[in-house]
Amino acid sequence: MAFDWDDLRLFLEIARAGTLTSAATRLKLSQPTAGRRLRALEQSVGAALFQRTSSGFLLTDEGEAMLLHAEQMAEEAVTLERKLAGGARGLEGVVRMSASDWVSSRILAAPLADFAISHSGLTVEVIADSRLMDLQRREADLAVRFVPFSGADIIHRRFRRIRYGLYAASSYLDRCGDPLSSDDGAGHQLVTMDSALDRLVDVMWLRSRWPSAAPTFRSNNREAQGAACAAGAGLAVLPRVIGDALDVQLLGGEEPPARDLWLGYHEDLRRLRRLRLLVEHLDQVLPTDI
Question: What is the largest distance, in Å, between two alpha-carbon atoms of the chain?
Fold first, then answer.
């Protein structure tokens, strides 16, 4: 029995995501097309691979049996793709880079654009997403993130140090007073990360410095935090590259803790010339502390 590899990829994505919609989105397919291809695959196998439920798609026994072999095939295919890409000597092609939304826009976009302009035939694709992309599955060629990498086959290093500052709008200071004169923050308000990210070092620093202050605005988006701070919603710890560009005041006193950015790529791509030159370019143009 011959299988279409694209249909097997769809099967894998549904098994991983649990829904047809998510799998179709990841593979850039319409949902009707994905549904037709899944039905065709099940007809060729002669069995239902998923049980359709109100909470998503669950693997049947036949689907479980196929999953192991499909994952092995996918791993071999991605390994071959990485090795072929790693052997490419020219600069033509695509480099896919992953970073969070604000790191992509505030730190990387301009130097990446300069690099692409200087190298005709090259496309730099930036995935602005806080998800940790899987470099082994080649969801990205290169990743910049705040979490250290794991895996013996990932080449990684500390890339840059990101400085943070404490900010407040003039309207907030007029309304609530100078927070630096307060021991516990009573009567003050905070703009901070949402509860899912409340263990980040800057959030912990802010709460420990003013434990009696009330959180009035939370978001997992730094740009949204900055906009709320500028509107007078409260004190905010922001990356300097965001806060210094806003109409807010950088408050003195103790500086919030900095954070390290990590850079990593799969070892199979270490000889990929366009990736290597891109990393060298970023090292040349970006300051060590940002």
Answer: 75
List of residues 6+ apart from 101 with CB closer than 8 A: 128, 129, 130, 221, 222, 223
Q: Which helix (H) or strand (E) holds 216?
A: strand 214-218
Backbone angles phi, psi at 172, to 5 degrees: -70, -45
Domain 93-162+260-285 sits in CATH at 3.40.190.10
CATH architecture of the domain formed by 164-257: 3-Layer(aba) Sandwich (3.40)
pLDDT along the chain (290 residues), means of 10: 71 86 86 87 84 85 80 67 53 88 96 91 90 83 93 91 97 96 94 85 93 95 96 97 97 93 91 90 96
pTM of the model: 0.69
d(CA 274, CA 280): 10
